[in-house]
Amino acid sequence: MKLLILFAILFAQAALAGAPMEALTAFKKAAQNKDFDATWKHAAKFEGLPDDATDYFKGKVQRFIDLTSNNWDFEILEEKVEGDSAVVVINESKKAGRKAFDLDPVYLIKQGSEWKVFPDVSDWNIAEQVAADKVDSFKKLEAWFKARKAELKKDNGK
Predict the structure, then answer these.
(1) Which structural domain, as residue segments, surrounds residue 90?
(2) CB within 10 Å: which end of the chain, N or C, has fewer?
(3) Signal peptide: which range, if any (predicted)?
C-alpha cells in the first residue's frame, strides 16, 4: 500500500512538472495565431476587479499578441515553482527580426487545476491586491529569477 501511495505521489509530481512551461507555450502559440480569445483563455483572471482593470489586462494580452506579429519571439529556458506560483525564464531571442539575448521572467499562477500566465507577463504585482497569500512566493520567485538571470548571462558571456 505504501508503495502504491508513493507511486501516486511521484506520478502526480511528474504530471505537474513542466506545467507552467506548457501553459506559457500554449499562451505563446495562441498569440502567434493572433487569436485573442485563445490567448486570453491562458491568462490569469481575477474576480472582483473593476472593468477598467480587466480592460487594462486585456490590453496587455493584446500587446503580447502584437509583439509576436512584429518579428519578436522568445524561447522558454526553465521554470521555478513555489506552491501555486511560478516563474518561467525566457530569452527574448528575436527583437525586430534580429537575433537577441534578453532574459525576462514570465509569472504564472495556478487557478483551479490550471496554470495561467499573468496578463502583464513580467509583472506579478497584481497579486498584492488579488492574491495576497501568494506575495511571499512571488517575492521568492523574483529573487530566484534575478540570481538565475545573472548566472545565465555569465554562462553566455553577456
Answers:
(1) 20-155
(2) N
(3) 1-17
